[in-house]
From TrEMBL:
EC primary class: transferase
Taxonomic lineage: Bacteria, Bacillati, Bacillota, Bacilli, Bacillales
Role: Catalyzes the ATP-dependent phosphorylation of L-homoserine to L-homoserine phosphate.
The entry's keywords: Amino-acid biosynthesis, ATP-binding, Cytoplasm, Kinase, Nucleotide-binding, Threonine biosynthesis, Transferase
Residues in GHMP kinase C-terminal domain copies: 204-280
InterPro entries assigned to the protein according to its UniProt record, in alphabetical order: GHMP_kinase_C_dom, GHMP_kinase_C_sf, GHMP_kinase_N_dom, GHMP_knse_ATP-bd_CS, Homoserine_kinase, Ribosomal_Su5_D2-typ_SF, Ribsml_uS5_D2-typ_fold_subgr
PROSITE patterns: GHMP_KINASES_ATP
UniProt source species: Halobacillus aidingensis
GO BP: threonine biosynthetic process
Protein name in the entry: Homoserine kinase
GO cellular component: cytoplasm
Known pathway: Amino-acid biosynthesis; L-threonine biosynthesis; L-threonine from L-aspartate: step 4/5
Intracellular or extracellular location(s): Cytoplasm
């Protein structure tokens, strides 16, 4: 087995009312540089070491083993995996999905499974429970999917998104998805649910027809989850005025938060500088769509 590299993009889920269903792959990456070894070991960047284990409790390894077992194998060839991580942990940019998808890609390559993207997606949903981050991490672009624990349906689209900028406003604190999901109601009024479903439908239709202004408007119309989660993201209510001044089309809590993502169809250096200044307490990163999804590259042997 020669050296190989797996690259998995960050993702931003929900896009407002597309709760647990809509997601986009963005231009931040986790890379796994892999080579045969005597035992399994993950080299983890120093700043991530408190959160990412280097042994077999690593989520990437656990997912790779889950995938192998699902395909009838009992073990995986021992590998040294060197991680390079540009996706901040527990910030709403799909860091756990990058690990799940990375693990599936790893098993697929090590065992020569030849899994289709749909098969990878199905395994990832079994682990993650909802498809909105793992889908775009595998396929790239925008994914609209539904998973009920058994059936998995999706629509994938990539067209016309090259000129958009997805501005990630990343706070310096972690927010665990479980905590953010714990704030959501157990039930919702029928009329309210119908309304929310309508917003999600218009969001998806607007994205599919490249009506970015309407998509941006819909991002802010969500009543499924954002009203309940804002309490965990103290700066969120202050972003609207700042972003509208720079002609953002709309913004939303990315995944379970705490990152906010704002959509722009026109972007320039002036906007970047002014927004960095206005949002100086945050890491502000203008991102583009990633269209390829997870990729594996075979590398030349080390000399
Ligand atoms: N749809 C998920 C949520 C994304 O908002 O909780 C985070 O896993």
């Amino acid at each position: 087995m020669s050296r190989f590299q797996i690259r998995v993009p960050a993702t931003s889920a929900n896009l407002g009312p597309g709760f647990d269903s809509v997601g986009i792959a963005l231009s931040k990456y986790v890379t796994l540089d892999c080579q045969p070894a005597d035992e399994w070991f993950f080299s983890v960047p120093e700043e991530d070491q408190p959160y990412i284990p280097s042994g077999k409790s690593n989520l990437i390894y656990k997912t790779a083993l889950f995938t192998a077992e699902a395909m009838g194998y009992e073990e995986l060839p021992s590998t040294h995996v060197e991680l390079t991580n540009d996706v901040p942990i527990a910030r709403g940019l799909g860091s756990s999905s990058t690990a799940v998808v990375g693990g599936i890609e790893l098993a697929d390559h090590l065992l020569g499974l030849g899994l289709s993207r749909y098969e990878k997606f199905k395994i990832a949903c079994e682990i993650e429970g909802h498809p909105d981050n793992v889908g775009p991490a595998i396929f790239g672009g925008i994914m609209v999917s539904n998973y009920d624990g058994e059936h998995l349906d999706y629509v994938h689209f990539t067209e016309g998104m090259d000129d958009l900028t997805w501005l990630a406003i990343i706070p310096d604190y972690h927010l665990e998805t479980e905590k953010a999901r714990g704030l959501l109601p157990v039930e919702m009024d029928y009329k309210q649910a119908v309304n929310n479903s309508g917003s999600a439908n218009v969001l998806v239709a607007a994205l599919a027809t490249k009506n970015w202004a309407l998509a941006g408007k819909m991002m802010q119309s969500d009543r499924w989850h954002q009203p309940y989660r804002q309490v965990l993201i103290p700066g969120f209510s202050s972003f609207k005025e700042i972003l509208e001044k720079e002609q953002s089309l709309g913004h939303y809590i990315s995944g379970a938060g705490p990152t906010t993502v704002a959509l722009f169809d026109v972007w320039d250096e002036g906007k970047r500088k002014r927004l960095e200044l206005a949002l100086e307490d945050y890491q502000v990163e203008p991102l583009q769509v990633n269209l390829s999804g997870a990729e594996t590259f075979v590398l030349a042997p080390e000399k």
